[in-house]
Amino acid sequence: MVAPLYTTASGLLFHAGKILIVTVGLPARGKTHISRALERYLRWTGVKTQVVSLGDYRRKTLGGAQKLPPDYFTLGEKSPETIALRQKVMDGCEQIIWDFFNSGGQVVIYDANNGTRERRQTLAEKFDKAGIHIVMLESSCDNNDIIMGNIRSVKISSPDYRGWDQEKAVTDYYNRIRDHEIHYQAVEETTWPFVRVINVGEKIMVNNIQGYLQSRIVFFLMNIHNQYRTIYFARSGHSLIEHSYKADSDLDPAGWEYADRLKEFVLDRRAKSLKARGMENEDRRLVIWTSARRRSHHTAWPFLQQKDGPRVKVVEKPQMGEINPGVWDGMTPDQVRKFYPDEWERFVKDPYAYRAPRAESYHDLCVRLEPTLIELEREKEDLLIIGHASVIRCILAYLIGLPASEIPAIEVARGDLIEVVPTSYGVHSQAYHFWDGPGRSNGGSGKDEHNFYENYAEDTQGKRRPEVAEVVQAAET
Amino acid sequence: MDSDRNPREVTPAKLSLVDNALSGVKLDPHLAVPRVHTPPAMFGAGGPMLKQFDQSNAASRVGSQAATPPRSVVGIGNKVAKPDYSEAKIVVAMVGLPARGKSYLSNKLMRYLKWLEYDVKVFNVGQLRRSRARQKAQESGKHEDHTASYFSHDNVEATRLRDQLATDSLDMLIQWLRDGGNVGIHDATNSTRSRRAKIEERVAQEKGFVTIFLESVCDDPALIAANVALKVSSGDPDYKDMSREEAKADFLRRIKQYEAVYETITEPHLSYLRIINVGNQVTVCRIHGYLQSRIAFYLMNLHLKPRSIFFSRHGESQYNVEGKIGGDSPLSERGQKYATALPALITDNIGDAPLTVWTSTLQRTILTAQHLPYNKLTWKSLDELDAGVCDGMTYEEIEHAYPDDFAHRDEDKFNYRYRGGESYRDVVVRLEPVIMELERQENILIIGHQAILRCLYAYFHNLPQADLPYIKIPLHTVIKLTPKAYGCDEERYTLPIGAVDTHRPKPGSSPQLQLSGTGREYYGEKA
After folding, report:
1. R_g of chain B computed on alpha carbons
2. Helices (H), B441-513
3. Nearest to A37 by CA among A279, A258, A222, A166
4. Subunit contact A319:B38, Cβ cutoff 8 A
5. Are the beta carbons of B377 and A5 separated by less than 8 Å?
6. How many Cα neighbours within 13 Å face the side chain of B256?
7. Where is the segment annotated Disordered (chain A) (predicted)?
8. For residue range A314-372, what is the model confidence (pLDDT) as tens digits?
9. How many angstroms separate the Cα of B417 from the Cα of each of B45, B80, B85, B327?
10. Is B314 labelled as part of a ligand binding site?
């Protein structure tokens, strides 16, 4: 349960105090991937979090690897100048960490090798003295394929190797990290709480983790993976009465037609993208999540009816119902303004945090969706979420890494299929426009002039819309 | 479009009904209280709109283009089937020396997963041994010797017997999984590599079955001593004719016999979870799959510190007095009295110990907690079961407007989802993170609602889903639960402040709720 109910006077969440997560691991062990994923998750839950990367800082202040003295990365005796240079980089990073904590930040993920016990102890003692909780987060690998894959996909595209020959860069990098192995000390000391992640989650060891926020962090790390998959989002079809939460109305005829078209389009898109990656359609299953609302579950109905085609599993999730409008159910924004002027004004001022009477705020919705999010991280199959605009907004914001305040403004138009592919450092997202009809018109703005009663929260208008690829339907032209 | 020709079309004319109804409401400018019911909920079951809407699109379902379209929700709700858990087939094999809390963990895990509606059973090898020995003794009059020497690996005959018991117990477990179970917990020491290899090999023969080993390691002498003391003082039939001192000595000898051959899990290919001193250190290895990761996370969050959990409903609310369900009404006069009297009751009970109060976001719980001198937190997840279209109505009104639907809910209350609202199952799903947090915390007082407290109470007392909606949680009563090794002790304190009774028994029956005891089962279920 992630909720601001734990907000303390200091603005910190969950009574967890300030936490310094010290990453430990040789280069190319996925520290940055884990750090960024954790940062995205914690920020989405409202915790002020910052990754401080030693590598990035060094590159910013000193430039790429070719500008460094030759003994910067090698082992053994270093010249006094190099020692001073390295110290300067570390001090600079630590200063950034202090600055972030002092300006109200709660969690810092210090992304650096921290490969010796002595280095970790010095660092931890320094911050522990200031009352900051320390957690060691080690990522290690004994599988060379994972390491080489990581070097090829991530490391040689780093600015350190701009303009290098690819194979040369791989060799150089591999030599750089091989040297480190000799002096590397795994986290075996139990002085500080630790989480050790081995081979990207194959094995996880946890020592003395205290408190709610730290346990959430561990659960999150237990569930992330880096296998290739695609996540699709589509809104449910148009229903008989769009504006009532309570009526839970079924699809209207246009909605049923939309459901058929969605099925065809998703299967077609997916077949193409699998083919492009050389995968067979039959190898993988498509998992579909819907809410327990009729309009959402019935939009998945055509998938259940197909006789052949890829394997599909449909799961109904009661946690994924749309945002509850409370006493505003069934009203247009105009009516709400008329009957609840003060509440409406507060809602408009802060649509993310304001909770109308008996309603859910977007924050409440995010809290409700959090267990689903962990399941989404864990899922390895391709996933299609047929949902409501408010729900898709929250999940997209998490995947893309948008700040909470922007969630209510994300545009999720009916008739767009949003395709999201997670990668090491974020996601690729792309929307495909495949359908026009009630609930979507006026050039894709999503506003339907014939629909008088669209639920304010399910309105499709928004400032931020994923890039849309227009897909011309042969049948229509 | 002509609405007469196409009854499923929702036209401006039809929806103007809503506008007209809304504009008919006069606002009182002097009204100080929040206008909770101004204007009225348009699609509530008390108004005409819902029925009109259902009637107007009844025809659309008949003429739908989709092949065998699924049913829409009509009226005030419908029964919802349990989700399909048939894919889940998990063998949880315990590993650990005696007195390391294996049975405790098995039992906790079983309660948690049963509450989430998985079919779970513990297969305890010790129980099987005792009940077989008892049977043998009854038939032949011969008592087997089950003192420490029986557990020695030098005792070839006994070792063979014990191996046979473990194998039989695993076979029973697998048969039970084949017959529809979800999670079978093999509660035995499984202390050697060869034993674990046998389990793994046996389970791998079954398609779709997964094994997880759960090792409980304990090197805290105080914890072991407490477990030993519990074992010899709790009426274990193995020690029936011995003094406590003798029993303790024998049990410690038995532990020694196991220690001699014990091998902690180091097999790198196994899927396992190792817990050291209940939650202090945890290793999670090759845990894949949804349910497995839930199990791991749950076990990571347990602790053994003594504490109590207090439940109280909010003080009597104005809606309670009027017999209405749902809503967000303030307290009645008697409810306010309860709120005033509550701090003394709690403080008398708990003394100086720290306590945190959890309320929902509804004002009747917040008002009830207002005088309590403790840290208070508000949870949206603790809000009362959402009665959807029936919110704000009395049971009589619902029965009058929708007599058939009303009867359906009584038939299967746990599975019944109010239209535009929730079922008890939905509430359980929503409360799962609360349970997780409750396991992590120490002394907690929850000021909650009837349906919410029923769900939480059922978790702690291991009550079946069918009985859950009928658990008695009266107003103006504090329920104190104290977790013990194999269940919870319960005390109830009722304040002498009158309140209405909001409990509706299941029509035509008076189920007697059987509370599970806090003692340990030594022979397994009665046949």
Report:
1. 28
2. 450-461
3. A222
4. no
5. yes
6. 10
7. 439-477
8. 999 999 999 998 888 887 777 888 888 898 888 888 888 888 889 998 888 988 999 99
9. 14, 7, 20, 17
10. yes
